[in-house]
């Protein structure tokens, strides 16, 4: 067509990503993704897939054979867990304390299951006592599902205790670890989690589009003994097992996102080199610096401290301040992205991520300085000029 516009190559701006994800991606990961593409059944690629499984077992702290990245974002990892473990008529206890607990409910319904809700206020951890009561009232429940790190609020629940309660009542567990894997203590084998999923773009600092999952032997046995066919062909573990099984027996299932898997492999090598506990400590350390700055500025956290996720911080927006205008100015003047509140929290909180490669002192100081300057200019009721000093004081003392 004569009026077809001439579109040139896309050149994205350089941003500092401090929202709820994606996080900043290290140049090593971007370089890895630019390496030559090979076939998804190429012996060299198959060898890398075996390494990926080993690296993910380390990240999850598990020896589960079926530990691999699903080709799709965290939401596909979520759906993979539910469509394989939930059959029509199955009763599932879902602990809901934010947006992503709500998505679990939707998954149960679409699988034909019967959801039983354990609701807690947004910004609160899941109440283990409520879960215990729900299980006593529903002795025929098959699965307990909950979010370890609720991305919509920054609340962290006691996964170990919740899994113990579920198992005591004979239930399998499905755990959302999208925002916790690599950033906060997560021990799949020690806690005896049955099915767990995460995302590549949070604390692993890869690009979006892959969802690491892990299934216990008990979960796999449940899948193999289903009475009905898994409703999703693509996510049916009985079929996927053939592709992610031993390298010598691998069969075609789908064309894997080859270069994206290069990137995840590199990000997991970096996690291995840093050391998992060192990564957990780094995220906690930078959170403490951010907290010192916000406390000095007078901004309030939405989640109480003992239930707070270090790598995802929900901050209450000061009275009379235009949420969208603050975020616009941060993006325009500082190339800094922070996150909006979701659902009932829209316009009430900002979500600041300190995930993966984004969890660095220079990012903490940039966020504090930028928010201080923008809010001061907008006449917000804050203590101007104190945040960066407080954060630097924390770093200097440590």
UniProtKB/TrEMBL annotation:
Residues 1-11 have a biased composition (Polar residues). Residues 1-23 are annotated as: Disordered. CDD domains: AGAT_like. GO terms for molecular function: alanine-glyoxylate transaminase activity; L-serine-pyruvate transaminase activity. Substrate binds at residue 351. Residues 37-341 form the Aminotransferase class V domain. Pfam families: Aminotran_5 (PF00266). It comes from the Bacteria. Its cofactor is pyridoxal 5'-phosphate. GO terms for biological process: glycine biosynthetic process, by transamination of glyoxylate. InterPro entries: Aminotrans_V_dom, Aminotrans_V_PyrdxlP_BS, PyrdxlP-dep_Trfase, PyrdxlP-dep_Trfase_major, PyrdxlP-dep_Trfase_small, SP_NH2Trfase/AEP_transaminase. The modification N6-(pyridoxal phosphate)lysine is found at residue 202. Keywords: Aminotransferase, Pyridoxal phosphate, Transferase. Belongs to the class-V pyridoxal-phosphate-dependent aminotransferase family. This is Alanine-glyoxylate aminotransferase. The lineage of its organism: Bacteria, Pseudomonadati, Pseudomonadota, Betaproteobacteria, Nitrosomonadales.
């Amino acid at each position: 067509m004569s009026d077809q516009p001439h579109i040139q190559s896309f050149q994205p701006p350089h941003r500092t990503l401090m929202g709820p994800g994606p996080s900043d991606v290290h140049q090593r990961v971007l370089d890895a993704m630019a390496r030559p593409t090979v076939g998804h059944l190429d012996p060299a690629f198959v060898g890398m897939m075996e390494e990926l499984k080993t690296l993910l077992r380390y990240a999850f702290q598990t020896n589960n054979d079926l530990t691999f990245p699903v080709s799709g974002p965290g939401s596909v990892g979520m759906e993979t867990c539910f469509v394989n473990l939930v059959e029509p008529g199955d009763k599932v206890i879902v602990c809901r304390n934010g947006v992503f607990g709500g998505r679990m409910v939707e998954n149960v319904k679409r699988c034909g299951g019967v959801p039983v809700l354990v609701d807690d206020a947004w910004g609160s951890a899941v109440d283990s006592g409520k879960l215990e009561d729900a299980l006593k009232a529903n002795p025929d429940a098959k699965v307990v599902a909950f979010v370890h790190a609720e991305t919509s609020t920054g609340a962290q629940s006691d996964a170990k205790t919740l899994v113990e309660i579920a198992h005591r009542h004979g239930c399998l567990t499905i755990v959302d670890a999208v925002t916790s894997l690599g950033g906060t203590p997560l021990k799949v084998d020690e806690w005896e989690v049955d099915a767990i999923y995460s995302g590549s773009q949070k604390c692993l600092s890869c690009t979006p589009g892959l969802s690491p999952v892990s299934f216990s032997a008990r979960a796999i046995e449940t899948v193999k003994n289903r009475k009905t066919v898994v409703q999703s062909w693509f996510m049916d573990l009985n079929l996927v097992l053939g592709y992610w099984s031993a390298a010598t027996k691998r069969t075609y299932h789908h064309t894997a996102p080859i270069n994206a898997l290069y990137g995840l492999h590199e990000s997991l090598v970096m996690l291995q080199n840093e050391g998992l506990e060192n990564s957990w400590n780094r995220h906690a350390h930078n959170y403490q610096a951010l907290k010192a700055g916000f406390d000095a500025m007078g901004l309030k956290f939405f989640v109480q401290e003992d239930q707070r996720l270090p790598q995802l911080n929900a901050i209450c927006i000061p009275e009379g301040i235009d949420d969208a205008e603050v975020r616009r100015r941060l993006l325009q003047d500082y190339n800094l992205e922070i996150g909006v509140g979701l659902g009932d929290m829209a316009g009430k909180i900002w979500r600041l991520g300190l995930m993966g490669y984004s969890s660095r002192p220079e990012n903490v100081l940039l966020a504090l300085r930028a928010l201080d300057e923008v809010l001061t200019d907008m006449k917000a009721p804050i203590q101007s000029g104190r945040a960066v000093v407080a954060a630097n004081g924390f770093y200097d003392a440590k």
